[in-house]
Design brief:
299 residues; alpha/beta; Rossmann fold; 2 domains; 11 helices; 15 strands
């Protein structure tokens, strides 16, 4: 794996308050990397340090293997970013706004404007003034702006703020498609853990400026399997058998007649065998996973 972005011991203090504390994370090429935490956890502060918008108190940031503070202008062309709310000229169309950026950036063909508007599904509204756009459309135009120069790394700070469920689903599908077609690596900060769980390949979770975990989504969710859903007949006998078994922490009767038994996943097979040994008819035996949000709240 090639590291696209690395932070090492990244810290930001404002007087006596520490906003980000000794943060070390790695974003690999091809990742859709979720940077997760509650509002105020230090996500935007971290992103501002990554983009050289504010100076860290301590630590360093490397993008494409180069120190951001020393080589920012060299790095910047290959980085696209949307930090908080996107800003546009409201009296200009989406096309004209991107044309202004294209001319300021240099080295970007005019055809690229049409390409990025097509990617974010704004081609049919390309010549409408931005002031007529909904918030979701402005967010999509912000992503088009971030993609204009074909960056290797795209950094999006809370890009789904203000979007309805349909808009969030569309955004998720769009990022996955762009990751495949454009080959771009994405770092996406969000406090909406459920949304990121559905799209990210790897995540870092921070809490009060400290790293809680950095791992693939699949590995985190695999660790959260700590209960099993059972449907067996007779139900009362099944509950009695499960309740007596070594390692069972809790046995809960669910409203639909099933049981949820909490125990270490290494004991799942023993529980299943014990139910059958007692001649119970087992029609359902399914491990239950916590969501990423439930995992975060349990930490």
């Amino acid at each position: 794996m090639t590291a696209i972005l690395e932070t090492s011991g990244l810290t930001k203090r404002y007087g006596a308050r520490t906003s980000v504390n000794n943060l070390s994370i790695t974003v690999n090429e091809g990742d859709i990397y979720g940077f997760l935490g509650l509002n105020g956890a230090g996500k935007t502060t971290t992103i501002r340090m990554v983009l050289n918008l504010i100076k860290p108190t301590a630590g360093s940031v490397r993008i494409f293997g180069k120190d951001v503070r020393r080589h920012f202008l060299e790095i910047a062309r290959d980085v696209g970013a949307l930090v908080e709310l996107p800003a546009f000229y409201p009296y200009l169309s989406a096309w004209k706004n991107l044309e202004v950026l294209r001319l300021a950036t240099g080295g970007v063909s005019k055809n690229r404007i049409g390409e990025v508007l097509e990617m974010v599904r704004l081609a049919d509204r390309a010549h409408d003034r931005v002031r007529s756009y909904s918030q979701g459309m402005r967010q999509r135009l912000g992503i088009a702006q971030a993609l204009l120069a074909r960056p290797r790394l795209v950094i999006l700070d809370e890009p789904t703020n203000g979007l309805d469920p349909h808009g969030m689903k569309y955004f998720r599908e769009m990022i996955q498609e762009l990751n495949k077609k454009e080959g771009a690596t994405f770092l996406i900060s969000s406090h909406l853990l459920h949304e990121i769980e559905l799209s990210a390949t790897r995540v870092a979770i921070i809490k009060e400026g400290n790293l809680v975990i950095e791992e693939t989504v699949s590995n985190i969710l695999a660790r959260t399997v700590n209960s099993v859903r059972i449907r067996a007949h007779p139900a009362k006998e099944a509950a009695a058998v499960a309740g007596k078994m070594e390692g069972v922490q809790q046995c809960v009767a669910l409203d639909d007649g099933a049981l949820q038994v909490f125990l270490d996943r290494s004991r799942f097979a023993h529980l299943n065998a014990e139910l059958h040994r007692n001649n119970l008819e087992v029609s359902e035996f399914a491990p239950v996973k916590m969501s990423l949000e439930e995992y975060f709240l349990s930490r």
